[in-house]
Design a protein that fits this description.
The chain has about 525 residues and is of the alpha/beta class. The protein has three domains: about 220 residues, Lambda Exonuclease, Chain A; about 80 residues, DNA polymerase, domain 1, CATH 1.10.150; about 180 residues, 2-Layer Sandwich (Nucleotidyltransferase, domain 5). It contains 22 helices and 15 strands. The strands form four sheets. The protein has a five-stranded mixed beta sheet. Strands 12-11-10-13-14 form a five-stranded mixed beta sheet, sandwiched between helices. The protein has a three-stranded mixed beta sheet with strand order 1-4-3, with helices on both faces. Helix 1 crosses helix 2. It is globular, with a radius of gyration of 28 Å.
Length: about 525
C-alpha cells in the first residue's frame, strides 16, 4: 500500500476521499471536470514559472515519478552528489523505516483505540511516498556530507492552507529520515510568488498524528461516513457516488445549515438522520446548537417535508419594506477568470416593465487586457438608467465593482452612486424565506421555482474553462456558450426576484387578513 503526500493532502480535506482512492470502485468515479484539469495545468505552469523566475539551476531524475522506486534511488543519488537543486524528485520510506525513527507510540495508541491487530504481512506492504516540488541544497550536516536539503513546495493557492502545511511537514520528516537530519525550515511558494515558511515545531507533531490516523483508517479499512460539503465536494470525482449514498440515507449533511461542527453536536444528541431531527423537540435541540439555529433547522426540515417555501420565523413581514422595484430594472451577473484575475463578462438584463420588454446586453473582454474597456462600457450603459435598481445574487458583484473601480481610477462618487442601486437577492432570500432545497445557490433556487438553464452542463467553473479555451482556439462558439450561460444567470435572477416579491406580498396579505379577522 502506498501512502502518498497526495493521499494525505486529500485526507486533510476529506478522509473519505482518501479511503475511496484506495478501496473505491473506479467505475463509480465521476469524469474529471474540465475546471479541475485546468487547475492541474495551471499548477504545472506555475511551478515552471517560479523555477524560471528564480533561476533555479536544477537536476532531475532520469525516470518519471510513475516509476517511484527508481526515481527515489536517483533522487538520493543526486543528494549524495550534492547538486544545488533537485526538480521532480521523490522520497520513499517503508513503514519500518518510518516507525524506527518516530517510535511506535503514536501508531500503537491509534491501533489500541480501534482494538485491531494489523499483521506484519500488511505492514510490510506499506510505503510512504513524498514528491516535493523542489529540494534545495544548503550548508549543514547530513549523512551525505557538509550539506543538507530543504523541501520547497510550489502551490497555486493564494494563502498557506492547513493541508499545504501538513504536506510541507510530511516532506520535512521524510527528508529528515533519509538524510539523517530534519531541515530547520520548510518553504511554500504561493500564487503571487510570495514565500511562506512553515513552523515545523508545531506541524511536525500535528502531521505525525494525522499520518497515524490516515494509516489506521487505510490498513483497517475503516470507511468514513459520507458528509456532503457543497464547496469542498464540488470538484471531487467521488461526489456523485457519495451523493447517492447520502440521499439514500437521508443524511443530515443534505440539510442546509448542518455544518460539520453542528453535525458533531447533533450526533452527540443521537440525531443521525433527517427523521431523528424531525422528532427531536426544538427546545432540546436549542440547548445544544443554540435556539436560533434550532429554529432555523426545524423550519428547513418542515420546508423540505412539505416541499413548499416558508417565511422565515425571524422575518418581520409587516414592517419590512418590500423588495425595491422600478419601471426599468437591471439584472446583473459577472463571469470571472480567477487565475488571470480578470472579469471578462459583465452581463446585464434590462427589464422594462411598462413596455413589458427585456433585453440582454453583454460587455465581453475577448482578451483579458480589454477588461478596462468593458468596465467603462458597463459604467456608460448603467448611467443610461440612473433610477433603475440593479439586482444581483451574492456579494461577489459588489466586491467586483469596488475592485474594478479602484483598478481603473473610477471617481468615488460614481462608484458610490452605482452601488447605492445594488440589491442583493441572496441577502433577501437568507433573511426572509426558507426553501425546500439542499443548497441556496442561484441555480438550486431558480430550478425549484421552475427556471432552467439552456446549457445543462453550464456553471461558473465551466464558463472559466470555455473562456480559457476561447483564448487558445479563438473558436467563437465558445463565446456563444459563455454568453448564453451568463444571460440565463441574469434571467434566473429576474425570475427569483419576481417570485420573491409575489411570495412575500401574498404572505404579508394573508397575515394582515388573519390578524384583522382575529381582532373581530
Amino acid at each position: 500500500m502506498l501512502i502518498t503526500d497526495h493521499l494525505l493532502l486529500n485526507y486533510k480535506r476529506c478522509n473519505r476521499r482518501t479511503f475511496l482512492e484506495i478501496y473505491g470502485n473506479p467505475q463509480q468515479k465521476d469524469p474529471e471536470k474540465d475546471f479541475l484539469l485546468k487547475l492541474k495545468r495551471e499548477n504545472q505552469s506555475h511551478i515552471r514559472n517560479v523555477i524560471q523566475a528564480r533561476s533555479f539551476d536544477y537536476h532531475q531524475p532520469e525516470v518519471s515519478r510513475h516509476h517511484w522506486q527508481l526515481n527515489t534511488q536517483q533522487t538520493i543519488e543526486l543528494m549524495r552528489q550534492g547538486v544545488d537543486c533537485i526538480y521532480r524528485g521523490m522520497l520513499s520510506l517503508t513503514f519500518a523505516e518510518w516507525k524506527a525513527v518516530l517510535g511506535e507510540q503514536i501508531f500503537l495508541a491509534k491501533l489500541k483505540d480501534n482494538q485491531q491487530e494489523i499483521s506484519s504481512q500488511i505492514l510490510s506492504t506499506v510505503t510512504f511516498i513524498a514528491a516535493p516540488s523542489l529540494l534545495i541544497k544548503q550548508s549543514g550536516k547530513s549523512r551525505f556530507g557538509n550539506w543538507e536539503y530543504v523541501p520547497i513546495n510550489i502551490k497555486l493557492g493564494r494563502r498557506a492552507k492547513p493541508e499545504y502545511k501538513l504536506i510541507a511537514a510530511f516532506h520535512s520528516q521524510m527528508l529528515g529520515i533519509i538524510q539523517g537530519t530534519i531541515p530547520e525550515r520548510s518553504q511554500l511558494i504561493l500564487r503571487e510568488h510570495n514565500d511562506y515558511f512553515i513552523n515545523l515545531d508545531h506541524w511536525l507533531i500535528k502531521m505525525q498524528y494525522i499520518v497515524a490516523d490516515c494509516f489506521v483508517m487505510l490498513v483497517d479499512k475503516l470507511e468514513p461516513e459520507v458528509f456532503i460539503s457543497r464547496q469542498r465536494c464540488s470538484l471531487c470525482n467521488w461526489h456523485g457516488h457519495c451523493y447517492k449514498i447520502a440521499q439514500s440515507e437521508q443524511h443530515l449533511s443534505l440539510v442546509p445549515g448542518v455544518t460539520p461542527r453542528r453535525y458533531e453536536d447533533l450526533q452527540q444528541m443521537g440525531i443521525n438522520s433527517v427523521e431523528s431531527l424531525i422528532e427531536v423537540e426544538e427546545t432540546r435541540l436549542g440547548e445544544m446548537v443554540g435556539y436560533d439555529v434550532a429554529r432555523q433547522l426545524k423550519q428547513q426540515i418542515a420546508a423540505i417535508q412539505s416541499d413548499r417555501a416558508l417565511v422565515k420565523s425571524s422575518f418581520d413581514l409587516i414592517n419590512t419594506q418590500p423588495i425595491p422595484t422600478g419601471a426599468i430594472e437591471l439584472y446583473f451577473d459577472i463571469e470571472a477568470e480567477p487565475e488571470r484575475q480578470t472579469d471578462y463578462l459583465l452581463g446585464v438584463l434590462v427589464v422594462d416593465r411598462a413596455e413589458n420588454t427585456e433585453k440582454f446586453s453583454a460587455f465581453l473582454a475577448e482578451k483579458p487586457e480589454d477588461e478596462g474597456k468593458i468596465w467603462q462600457q458597463f459604467l456608460d450603459f448603467t448611467a443610461l438608467y440612473p433610477d433603475a435598481p440593479i439586482f444581483h445574487y451574492s456579494e461577489y458583484e459588489v466586491d467586483t465593482i469596488k475592485r474594478l473601480a479602484r483598478l481603473y481610477d473610477t471617481p468615488k462618487s460614481t462608484t458610490k452612486d452605482l452601488l447605492s442601486r445594488f440589491v442583493d437577492l441572496h441577502r433577501w432570500v437568507t433573511k426572509s424565506v426558507v426553501f425546500p432545497v439542499e443548497s441556496y445557490s442561484l441555480k438550486a433556487l431558480a430550478n425549484w421555482i421552475g427556471f432552467y438553464w439552456r446549457e445543462t452542463k453550464g456553471s461558473g467553473d465551466q464558463s472559466v474553462c470555455w473562456y480559457d479555451q476561447w483564448l487558445q482556439t479563438q473558436d467563437r462558439a465558445l463565446l456563444e456558450l459563455i454568453l448564453s450561460y451568463n444571460e440565463d444567470d441574469c434571467r434566473a435572477t429576474r425570475c427569483l426576484k419576481d417570485w420573491l416579491l409575489d411570495f412575500l406580498e401574498s404572505q404579508r396579505n394573508q397575515k394582515i387578513t388573519l390578524t384583522q379577522s382575529m381582532k373581530k
